[in-house]
Amino acid sequence: MKTLTLSASEATTATAIQQAIDSLGEDGGRVVLPEIELTLDRGLALRSHVELVGQGAGTILRMARGRVYPLAGYHNYGMADVPLQFTDGLEPGMTVAIRDNVYQGFFETFARITWVEGTWVGLDRGLESDYDAEQQPLLVTSFPLIYGERVEQVAVRNLTLDGRRAEQPAGIGGCRGAALYFVRSHHFVVENVTEQDFAGEGLGFQMCSHGQIRGCRFVGNAGNGYHPGAGSTGALFEDCLAEGNGRAGFFFCVRANHVTVRRCTFRGNVDCGVSVGTRDCYNLIEDCQIEDNEGPGVLFRVTPRPTEVHSCRVSGCRIAGNARRTGWGQVDILSDAHDLALVDNTISGLAGRERAGIYVAPSAQRIWLANNRVSDCFPAVVGDASSLAAAEPSFACGREAAQEVHFRHLRL
Fold first, then answer.
1. Are residues 94 and 47 in the same domain?
2. Do 124 and 266 fall within a single domain?
3. pLDDT at position 412, please?
4. Hey, which of 45, 104, 170, 278 would disulfide with 140, CB 3.0 to 4.6 Å?
5. From CA 35, how far away is CA 60, in angstroms rounded?
């Protein structure tokens, strides 16, 4: 593997690092960053077969101070340019987000600026939505610090990312970005990355497969700590931490399937520790510490048929001191969830806020509870007998159970 080891005098800008990444070409290789503290005015785009490696706590990539550029008026879906009231400070190569104050999610646009002429800027892709003047659309200099788009066989290792959230007047939504973000990418590794304080989510990926995230820390972000979403399949999370995030520690989004979460800690997040919802099936959460979150430790969200959550297993976890602000219990199983297994967990409540250990909604079905040790909760279980399984449901789950057929919706 070809390796480019940059010196401190060579890694002085985001542009310089991007040129090193791009220079590796189709064969790829490794870019090794020195011990630096560098402010990024644009996101670093990974290329297939490239590894980006730092020196751990000694390599710090920081978000530049954010700026907001109001659109001059209406502009329509699909156009690869946008009119602004002013363009001071914008230049080709910078990464930006276009959004409004009404619609979020996939209605936002993440793009790289290709040209600036007067009060118009060109983009490297078409707008993802119409943007009407009454919805106060904006272009904001918010972007993933590192991202991979339609890449494969990539890795990010031994880096520290700082989102400088207090200096960002606007962020980027979790569907289009995160501090570290992948979209339509496959076979990627994120290892020993520490990230904090992003005006959005920590680690997010959409429509991806075969991700491996190990030994990472994502803390103090405005959104979720970890967000596998939009059909992402076959991911592995091991020995990771999400703490003090503005939403959930770990958020399974729509159809995040065959995901294994092992030996991770989700602590002190403003929403729940782990949130599982729409079509998030065949997932395994084992040997995790889930504690002191404002919402339930584990939440199986309201997901009515035919997109209900099912065939997930939570085992060997310590779930304690959660539901500090919201939730029926330390574990909430809502709506039409079915065929779930909670086995060998240690569950304890919160002094002064008595809640159930496990809450099972009457509409849930075939919920298997076995060998869970529940203390300081009242009652230990809330749930109709008709909702509980008489025998353990039979299903295979987690990354290890994923087979080729489970990836066909992603058109690899």
1. no
2. no
3. 58
4. 170
5. 8
Do 205 and 88 have their domain in common? no
Residues 164 and 242 both lie in one domain: yes
Domain membership flag for residue 105 = yes
The DSSP code sequence of 106-130 is: GGSEEEEEEEEETTEEEESS--SS-
Q: Do 159 and 104 have their domain in common?
A: no
Q: How far is CA 224 from CA 253, 382, 396, in A?
A: 11, 28, 27
Using CA atoms, how far apart are residues 331 and 357, in angstroms rounded to an integer?
A: 6
Show the CA angle centred on residue 37, arms to residues 31 and 41, nearest 5°: 80
Torsion angle, CA of 282/288/289/292, rounded to 10 degrees?
-10
Query: Quick one: three-class SS letters along 214-283?
Result: ECCEEECCCCCCEEEECCCECCEEECCEEECCCCCCEECCCCCECCEEECCEEECCCCCCEEECCCCCCC
Q: Would you call 86 exposed, middle or buried from its count of C-beta atoms within 10 A (0-12, 13-18, 19+)? A: exposed
216 and 94 part of one domain? no
Q: Say if CB 195 and CB 163 are below 8 A apart.
A: yes
Domain presence at residue 49:
yes
Do residues 224 and 313 both lie within one domain? Answer: yes
- Cα–Cα dist 246/228, whole Å: 17
Amino acid letter, residue 404: E
Number of domains the chain is built from:
2
pLDDT value of position 302: 94
Residue 404 lies in a domain: no
Average pLDDT across each block of 10 residues of the chain; the chain has 412 residues. List them in order: 95 97 95 98 98 98 97 91 96 95 87 97 94 90 97 98 96 92 97 98 97 98 96 97 98 96 98 96 98 98 92 98 96 96 97 91 96 96 94 95 92 66
- Report the amino acid identity of residue 37: E
Q: Give the C-alpha distances (Å, rounded to integers) separating 104 from 21, 96, 101, 126, 247.
A: 31, 15, 8, 17, 16
Quote the CA–CA distance of 393 and 390 in Å, as a whole number.
9
Which residue segment(s) compose the domain that 89 sits in?
68-139
Beta bridge partners of 203: 180, 226
Which long-range contacts does 87-91 make (Cβ < 8 Å, 24+ apart)? 87/116, 87/118, 87/119, 87/120, 87/121, 90/116, 90/121, 90/141, 91/116
DSSP 368: E
Structure tokens at 384: 């109709």
